[in-house]
Design goal:
Length: 291
């Protein structure tokens, strides 16, 4: 496995035709939120990072009970609500189908909380859809409780984005063992599944499908703040709106988010950074990659 370079990912960010329209770059969705973790700003930041990464349209899909708190933070994004109870989404396949109409890719789990229906929703998407699905945060916690054989049955291209502790929960590997040899265990885990790309977060991020992979050494101390992982998920689903769902695209998302964070820290400092600062530097990071 080798280190990813800027030259590797220039192809992910081609110059666009003047006659392009938003439909050319994909409609993507972000499923998340609940009353306890409404994360209105978080969801807005996530969807903003998707747009900055280049997709055409972002649809933010939330429980109806938190729609009012999320709506004021959404400008260019669209909002879709799912029936809810006690602040959590209720599984209804017709509603899930409608929420995913026309979408090229979806990210799921940010601020989602814990609820029995979450397992039903995630299972239904994996069992019935054929699209890239980025699973993060509470989506990973939900997956940890499920039979992992679903990852071999799905037609979706699944992108898992755990940090080491989340990886312990979904893989069953011991935390210290992961910490001592993350690359080996990342490859071992991903190799079990035909349609999984694992992005294992760390000082060096590992992106692999079990057969090929990249090491991404971008990022900085200033990104050790709430919301940085959400920014990454937003970037990933944004790129999947108009790129192939493969290891290179996912690695490019990690590289882009990390480089944007470095540029933000250079302008600010490692103490004062917020996730929003990383998002603001995504355009500059893309310019640097293109150069």
């Amino acid at each position: 496995m080798r280190e990813l370079s800027k030259e590797d990912i220039k192809c992910i960010f081609p110059v666009r035709d003047e006659n392009s329209n938003k439909g050319n770059f994909g409609y993507v969705g972000i499923i998340g939120g609940c009353t306890e973790y409404s994360g209105a700003v978080k969801l807005a930041n996530l969807s903003c990072s998707s747009l900055r990464a280049g997709c055409g349209v972002v649809r933010v899909i939330v429980p109806k009970e938190i729609a009012g708190s999320v709506m004021p933070y959404l400008l260019e994004q669209t909002l879709y609500t799912i029936d809810s109870k006690n602040g959590h989404m209720i599984f209804n396949k017709e509603e899930i189908d409608k929420s995913l109409e026309k979408l090229k890719a979806v990210a799921i789990g940010m601020g989602w909380g814990e609820c029995e229906d979450n397992e039903k929703i995630l299972s239904y998407i994996l069992e019935t859809k054929d699209m890239p699905v980025v699973i993060d945060a509470d989506g990973l916690n939900t997956l940890a409780k499920m039979d992992k054989s679903i990852l071999n049955k799905t037609k979706c291209k699944v992108v898992l984005t755990p940090h080491l502790k989340e990886f312990e929960r979904i893989s069953g590997y011991d935390f210290e063992e992961i910490k001592n040899d993350p690359e080996k265990l990342a490859v071992k885990f991903a190799k079990q599944f035909d349609n999984v790309i694992l992005l294992l977060k760390g000082h060096t991020t590992i992106v692999t499908n079990g057969e090929e992979g990249y090491l991404v050494r971008r990022g900085c101390a200033g990104m050790a703040t709430a919301g940085s992982g959400d920014v990454l998920s937003g970037v990933l689903v944004g790129l999947l709106g108009y790129n192939e769902p493969n290891v290179l695209t996912v690695a490019a998302g990690s590289y882009l988010a990390g480089l944007a964070g470095e540029l933000a820290q250079k302008e600010l400092n490692d103490i004062s950074m917020k996730a929003l600062d990383t998002i603001a530097k995504i355009p500059e990071a893309i310019n640097e990659i293109r150069e």
